[in-house]
Amino acid sequence: MLLELRDVSVHYGKIRALHGISIEVNEGEIVTLIGANGAGKSTTLKTISGLRPLSSGSVWFEGADISTMAGHKRVVAGISQSPEGRGIFPGMSVHENLLMGAYARKDDFSAELEEAYELFPRLKERQHQAAGTMSGGEQQMVAIGRALMAKPKVLLLDEPSMGLAPKLVQQIFSIIEEINRRGTTVLLVEQNAQQALKLAHRAYVLETGEVVKSAPAAELLDDPQVRAAYLGGD
Ligand code: ATP
């Protein structure tokens, strides 16, 4: 197992965002977290990347307890997040944004740069453009490309399809599949449950900070309760 959350609770002040959740991600998998607004999906990713402290429980990566490890050390260890709302540096060029993703690396990252441009040819074409002037879909590509520059073992993606036109959603999902095919484990948070379940190997359903279901993704696509609650009920 690559990544594990054991009985994790997280609070924002008095608000309990996560209530004893346990999640496992195996090497090579695409695992997705689905759930309504406010279910705790983003908080789960922030907890894994070290942006939110635990109230209780533990987070394990490659067999080590990383519950109190600083965020930048988790990046070095192999955990990289592409944040919700993209979080790119708008005044910097596309190229500079990608380089920022490698800030913690001391080794040669030219292969990952080449790979990012290969996965996203549009970014290569626009490498000198200010990232803030790129379209929504292109900014999403910058955010994912930047996360890949850290050469992660697990890539955490928070709503990569948010605000994108259907055609671009397809494109982003097939690139995620390709990233996984090339060997990176993926933990994907999505509102677009249908697409996420089609892509993922396994899935967890979060409701008000608790895991209410976990199963192979294909099984959840056929689950009447999941269909009614998250897949438009058809
Ligand atoms: P969405 O899909 O809408 O982004 P989510 O499933 O990612 O939702 P979270 O953002 O993890 O949900 O939020 C979980 C709970 O924690 C919600 O009740 C939310 O209001 C609360 N919460 C999140 N961030 C904060 C914060 N900075 N301060 C206070 N409460 C917060």
From TrEMBL:
Gene3D superfamilies: P-loop containing nucleotide triphosphate hydrolases. One of its GO terms (molecular function) is ATP binding. The keyword ATP-binding applies. Pfam families: ABC_tran (PF00005). The keyword Nucleotide-binding applies. Residues 3-233 form the ABC transporter domain. Keywords: Amino-acid transport, ATP-binding, Nucleotide-binding, Transport. PANTHER family: HIGH-AFFINITY BRANCHED-CHAIN AMINO ACID TRANSPORT ATP-BINDING PROTEIN LIVF. Belongs to the ABC transporter superfamily. This is ABC transporter ATP-binding protein.
